[in-house]
Amino acid sequence: MILKFIKSGYQKVKRAFAKTGAMLGNKMRALFKGKIDEDTLEQLEQIFYEADLGVQTSVELTERVRALYRRNPALNADGLIAEVRQEIGKILSQYPPTLKDVSKTQLPMVILIVGVNGNGKTTSVAKLAKRMQDEGKKVLIAAADTFRAAAIEQLETWAKRHDIAMVKGVHGSDPAAVTFDALSAGIARGVDVVIIDTAGRLHTKTDLMKELEKIKRSCHKVHPDSPHETLLVLDATTGQNAIDQAKTFNQFTPITGLILTKLDGTAKGGIVVSIQQQLQIPVKFIGVGEAIDDFEPFDSESFVEALFE
Length: 309
Ligand SMILES: Nc1nc2c(ncn2[C@@H]2O[C@H](COP(=O)(O)OP(=O)(O)O)[C@@H](O)[C@H]2O)c(=O)[nH]1
Ligand SMILES: [Mg+2]
Prior knowledge:
single chain; alpha/beta; Four Helix Bundle (Hemerythrin (Met), subunit A); Rossmann fold; eight-stranded mixed β-sheet; elongated; binds guanosine-5'-diphosphate; binds magnesium ion
C-alpha cells in the first residue's frame, strides 16, 4: 500500500499540503501537545474550518473528538488524531469513485465534461482521454467549446500530441451540433468512449445552463442512454465557492461525479470532504498538475494518508 502511495500522484497532493504546513495531522499534533481542554477543542474546530472542511463537518468532527476525550481523558494526541482520520476516511469512502460500468450497455460510453471557466475542463478532457487510451480503450474527444476559438486549438494540441481522435466544430457553431456529430462518428467508428469538452459557463447564467440541456438532448438523440456520466470540474483552490457551483449545476443537470483540479496548488484538502458530504456526489478524479499525467482516479485511502501525513 505504501508503494502504491509513493508511486501515485498523491505524492503531489502531499507536497501541496506540506507546502504551507497545513496538513491536518501536523496541526493537530501541535495543538494537542499541551493540555487538552475546551479552549483546545475550540481551536481544533478552527483548524478543521481553515482546512475547508466546511462548518457542518468541522462542528461534527470536533464534537466527536470532544465526546471521545470525555469518555477517555487519558487519550493522547495520536489517539484523537486516529479518530478524526477514521471519521474522514469513512466520509470519503461512502461514494464509489469509479465510472459507471457500461460494459453491458451499448457503446460508446459518453462522458460530458462541464464547469465554470478556467476550472480545468479542457485539460481534464485531454488527461482523461489519454488515461483511458492507455488502458486500451478506443477514445474520441469532442471539442464542443465552440465559444472560444482558442479552446478548440487547445484541445487539438493535446489531441495531436497524444494521438487522440477528435471531432470539432468551427468557432461559433452550435455545441449541440458538434456533440451530435461526435457521437455519430463515435458510433460509426466503433469507439469505446466519447468525451465531450464544453464551454465554461457561469452557474448563475440560466441561458448557458439551458444550452447544456440542448447538448444533452443531442446525446440522447444519437445514443439514448447517454451521457452516461456528467462530470463537473471544480477548482480545489476556490474553496467553498466550489460547493455553490456544484449545487447550482446539479440543479440544472444531474452531476454523476466530480473532477477536482489543482489539488497540487492548495493546502486546503478538506474541500474534498465537505464536497462529498454536502453534495453526496463522488469525487471521481483529481488533477494534480498541468501535465497530461497529472491526473489520478480518486482514492480515499491515499488521500487521507496525504492529509494526515
Ligand atoms: N496546477 C494545476 N493546473 C491545472 C490543473 N488542471 C488545469 N490546470 C490549469 O488551469 C488552467 C485552465 O485550464 P483549462 O483546462 O483551460 O480550463 P477550462 O476553462 O475549464 O477548460 C490551465 O492553465 C491549466 O493548465 C491542475 O490539476 N493543476
Ligand atoms: Mg476549456
